[in-house]
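Ticket #4471: complex job returned nothing on first submit. Input attached below:
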Amino acid sequence: MPTPADAPPFDRPALLSALRARIARLERSGATEALSARGEDAIPLSRAIDAGLPWGGLPRAALHEILAAEPGAAAGFAALVLARAGGTVLWIAPDPDAWPPGLARFGLSPAHLVLVRAPRAQDALWAMEETLRCPAVGAALLMTGALDLTAARRLQLAAEAGGVLGLLLRPDEDNASPTAALTRWRIGATPSDSASPHAIGDPAWSLDLLRCRGGRPATWRATWHGEDLVTEEGATPARQRA
Amino acid sequence: MRRRCCGTPRIGEGAPRGQPPAPPAALPIDLFANATAVPLPLPAPFATGSGEVAASPAGVQEAAPPGRAHPDPHRRTLALLLPRLPVERLRRPGPVAVWAQRGAQRVVVSVSTEAEAAGLRVGQALADAQAILPGVVLVPEDAAGDAVMLGRLALWCLRFTPLVGVEAQDGLLLDITGVAHLFGGEAALRAEVLGRLARLGLTARGAVAGAPGTALALVRAGSGGVVAAGEEAAAARPLSLAALRLEPRLVSALHGLGLRDVGSVAAQPRPGLVRRFGTGLARALEEALGQAARPISPIRPPPEMQVAQDFADPVVTREGIEAALGLLLEALCRALREAGRGARRMLLRAHRVDGAVQEVAIGTGLATRDPKHLVRLFHGKLERLEPDCGYDRITLEAPGTDPLTGVQESLGTAGRAARQAELAQLLDRLSQRLPVWRLAPRASHWPERAMARVNAFEPMEMPVHWAPRPRPVRLLRRPPALEVMAEVPDGPPFRLRLGRIWQRVLRAEGPERIEPEWWRDRPDRLPRDYYRVELDSGVRLWVCRAGPMGPQGRWVLHGHLP
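Support reply: We reran it on our side without changes. The output follows.
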């Protein structure tokens, strides 16, 4: 292995970080071009979460996996990510039931949402890959079941080529298989802070970052308050490592 | 009637008098449903090049003459008659006859050449035919099958001209205005068509004339050939009355008057003829003499643009088809650019060597003439072609085009326009295989009607007053039923059962009463009371009770709240 010439010979951490950066550059060579046109390459979620992620937010040009412990909360979180990615977003599902009146609360306007119905798994994967390769799209969401590693890797490569953020929305399962996605989240619902039994208050979610390439798993409890995601550091550790 | 049925039917005299043999000019089933009477644009010099790629925009602006106006003197028509189609499409060796039930009688409606040589005739009673030739293969008539076969032949004829119409049960009309020179003249074109039909094993008669009615009269009377422009009346006069395709009753009445050919009928004073025999005869006469126009109902609307490629050796492989498609697309896109238009639909038509015709169509959301994009749209669909023994001709046409002028890009909008075009191309590709749509808000408070599916390609205008409300992010299309317990009959849910587990409701907001829209709904639709509930697990649901409070009300889960 060639040693970088400028690094001091015994500075192990510096050497390692240089090599990591190099590998990261190699892995994402295709995406840099597409991302440089957009300015920033990570989507901010909230201050606490951004600090916990190595990219300072949820990176574009990558695939992220969301395990839906609760369908409503997961769809809300996905809508939030899609809306913050900006531009036209595609929602690909066997039977897309996304409903804009509710999604609009998270900033996702119906004018930016395109729905694609793909009952067959091959069609859905093809549509997702085509979408991720198109730089004119902001983000794409695919509702799917379990995905094999090859398909996920293909989608990850397509996302890198197009600079598009891809979301995989899957039903929750306890021992999820390994994935090629950059991060894996489990989104569940928690009781809200509302004091009255006659008002359900702001949406409150539990966000488990189960897997994160180059980062640590973590748990947050987040509340959607007005236009912002307000988080408090979760006291409980991640339920389990998936 | 009953008395006549007792007599033996005479041989070779046509159908019995009381019963016209077949409903004239009534095609049993129109399988090619778009045989609408489109106004016929004059096929402008049409480039169906043999061996070379060529393109030509046909004039859209040239409107057709209205139905009964004087026929167009420049139009040329080739009429084809397939008298033995019901027998020949069976492809059986030996003497064959097709019979059908006509009233109380079974009569022969079509005979093969061998059977005719043995003495069988069309219109003979079935028993007579069996007596004359006991070994004849008898097949019951299948009018729908014949119509399908004729429709297929009409598609096949599109290799000669883009304007082909089906005529009754056994005829085809080809508008060959401006195409004959590509085949070396009208006589050569006629010979080519008849020769190719003979190779397919079909007996056919063909005649070329200026008026479609004259050409049809010629083939129906048993002759053929090419009639020069302006000679229609002279050519039609000596024909027998069979040329006019009249009811047998009318023919025998005319025979009774001593009128045995078209010319002698035409010489009679017209008012008297109309008074005695109706306008049908007069109309048939005028059409046959070329004095009245007869419209052709094309099986496919004539395309605005078309390019074609012929192959000396049939193309079988996918690579070959793709290469041909690339060439054709390039030529068509060049023609589109010159005309300042972009295609909205495209149709690839592949003519197989054995006469079958296969079609592949694509559509685009926005007008386009980018060959690279169009190739990708065709890519997934080429799998449907079945090049069994290969294609000897592939045509590509643009049935629908829109004006598309070059886009002038300014400094500020260059990137945006390119991005929009890219997005439109992506949606095009997706919509070739999958349904793609957007949801637009609609003025309705009924949840299922609040959003309407709209075209994904059109930019959406948001209504001014549309604001987000506490609504579910996912609306279930088939809402599952719930079991609900409430402390008081009209109170919010206290416990609810979804699936097998009873869950406690922590918080409930509501009710929100939504009344059915009486101006739109059926009258028995019940009002709904919606609650937003939070279970003790934190799950938030949008549940509703349809109908009255108490045990009659039906509870369903209608959506998931975030």
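The two ends of chain A are 32 Å apart (CA to CA). Closing as resolved unless it happens again.
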